[in-house]
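G., the chain you wanted modeled:
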Amino acid sequence: MERMNIGKLLPEVYKSMYALSIISAKSNLTNIQRELIKIRASQINGCAFCIDMHTKDALKYGETQQRIFLLNAWRETSLFTDEEKAILAITEEVTLISQHGLTEATYNNAMKYFSEETIAQIIMSVVVINAWNRISVSSHTEIPE
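Predicted structure as tokens:
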């Protein structure tokens, strides 16, 4: 059961959060890369609402069910490119920031594939979905049926 509707209680804050989402989506990342970030962070954070939304979006963009099913085991499969693995490593380390932060090894690996600007865009994409996860999990946002 939904606890509260933050969008109704704090409309200006919610609108600003939404605006941040729109701005951060204007990046060098592909739609699939952005959705992989959103799904993986949402899996880690246990946000059912966001997992539901972003797996549906990923499928619309052409992502395969198999890759979505294996996303939480991305290190154990060859279905993801080296670039995607670099993105997923950043996603996990930033989402779990209290464990050890974004490590030099992960950052340096990402530099093989992406510019500093694109890495900054990846980090901001992770930050935004983590904020949405925290809003949804805290307020018990329900999945539409």
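The chain has one domain: 6-139.

Shout if anything looks off.
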